[in-house]
Amino acid sequence: MREHWGSKVGFVLAALGSAIGLGTLWKFPYVVGDNGGGVFLLFYTFFTLTLGIPLFIGELIIGRRTQRGAVGSFASLAGQSSPWRVVGWFGVLSAFFILSYYCIVAGWGLNYLMLSLNQFYEIRSSAQIASTFGRLYEAGDVSLFWGTIFLLLTFGVVYQGIRKGIEQWSRILMVLLLLLLVALCIYSFTLSGFSEALQFLFRFKWRELQYSGILQALGLSLFTLSLAQGVIITYGSYLPPNSDLPKAALIVGIAVVLISFLTVLVIYPVVFTFHLPINEGAGLIFETMPVLFASLPGAMVLSVLFFTLFVFAALTSSIALLEVVVANLIDLYGLSRPKAAIFSSVALFFVSIPCALAGSGALFKEWLPMYGVNFFGTLDALVSNWLLPLGALLTSLFLGWRLPSCLVREEFKRGSIFGKIYGGWIFLIRWIVPMAILLVFIYESKIYSFDK
Ligand code: PHE
């Protein structure tokens, strides 16, 4: 029989664990900065509420109904040879690509954990502390080393299976992370740059929004909720039949938005207080947090604690990503869990090499001049801006138009206290989600110009 979650709380925490990860802690803060703050936050929140949460419910429905992984679930609902299977493969592919660079970023976290233990910020100025990241970025071998260690950690947990591995870890660590973030946020509140940060984050200057930011907000919203990657389908497949799906989705969705906001409220006061650059891209969190810690008493303890939790937050997400790939190999090819885990981890290691070396230019030297972004950035953009929205579009069409509506309604309502909002939800899934994603696509591909 298929293994199930030990308890409802365990499932919600695991889903939350998969959602809160590098998307919230690493990507969200710098993408907000790159896109001018307030307006971007508005779009992000809007997309999460109107597209993200409804899709989250939809994916849980697919997973719980079929009790299969991403590809298997589409096959069992639409038929073995149905083209809808492709949607499942899309998810697996996205999860695989994301994980290949996710390991590297999480590995940077491990590197900062080590740096913290060595108290690297002593006798350095804020600017010097911040510039340490640049060194790391260019040191491909160091990035690869830590990335591989992180991959091994991920492998270790997934190898052990659902209940023992994923569920237990997620419980304790998510709570700790939240407590630390709240404490840091209270401290940031006392910094002199706090009000400037608030202005940056909550003032809506429409003119500053580049329209490509809208696509990024959409992609990031799907990314942070772990959607369109088969993760939520897979997690839903380990759910017993009476669990309340809309409630779980609401809890996770709202928590993700709140924690994302908390993260930027910790980081941006530091940026403004210590006059660090705003558009710092991928390095932002690694450049600001050590500066913050260095200014605090007990810097070493704090920074060790923070980077430990950072790595764990990444781990509760990376195990979800690896689980998608592994669950599908098990479902489709009958591999044993250990074999599937080993096979996918080895493949991931190879794809993570060019990601690790992207900053050093040691591999694919011509990539950056040719594409305008390095290999790492290209993978990230491909997945977040195109594969995820496309996967989400197809999933909503599948739920809204392909599946029999009595089946969808029954699954939505079963065990839920939110049965009454079914009508609103199915309307969003049928019309609003697909149209919103299509509009963003049309805009981005410049097929039609909305500008006067
Ligand atoms: N949601 C995770 C994050 O924000 C990333 C992720 C995507 C994890 C998909 C699992 C599945 O970091």
Please summarize what this structure is.
The protein is an all-alpha fold. Helices cover 77% and strands 0% of the residues. The longest helix has 35 residues, at 299-333.
Written description of the protein model:
The chain has 452 residues and is mainly α. It has helices at residues 8-19, 22-34, 38-66, 70-78, 85-117, 126-138, 140-160, 162-189, 194-202, 212-224, 231-236, 245-273, 284-294, 299-333, 337-356, 367-371, 375-402, 405-413, 422-445. Helix 8 crosses helix 12 and helix 9 (194-202) crosses helix 12 (245-273). 53% of the residues are buried. The mean pLDDT is 88. The protein binds phenylalanine (PHE). Phenylalanine is lined by residues 18-19, 21-24, 98, 223-224, 226, 229, 231, 317, 320-321.
Helix content: over 70%
Shape: globular
Radius of gyration: 21 Å
What profile does the largest beta sheet have? none
- What hetero molecules are in the model? phenylalanine
Question: Which structural class best describes the helix and strand composition?
Answer: mainly alpha
Number of helices: 19
How would you spell out the order of helices and strands?
HHHHHHHHHHHHHHHHHHH
Q: Would you tell me the overall average pLDDT?
A: 88
Number of strands: 0
What are the low-pLDDT stretches, counting only 5+ consecutive residues below 50? none
